Please model this.
Amino acid sequence: MKKTMSAVLTLVIGVSAAQALTEVQKKTDYIRRFDKDGDGKLNLAEYTEMTRTQLAEQNNASDYKTIAAERFKDTDADNDGSVTPEEIVQRLVRLGLISADADTGLPKKNGQ
Ligand SMILES: [Ca+2]
Model:
């Protein structure tokens, strides 16, 4: 998993500040907790569980399935039915929810 983590950080933040690196790293670690089958990405069930947990932490868990489905669709950039940590982090950066060096231009996915 370390190799993938490194690739994620390199792709997502480029030469950005250490603070952004820490933020992306923390988020990626958090996302990986929900990868129950260990394939390196989240399917809808795994993503839904992550969303349910996040909303529960925010005391807003009533409609987590709808919210998860909407977010999952927005996150799954290549429409393959699973979302990678890269796709999740890129969405969060796009929405301004975490910081990264957006000026370098973010890749659409980790293709290599
Ligand atoms: Ca998975």
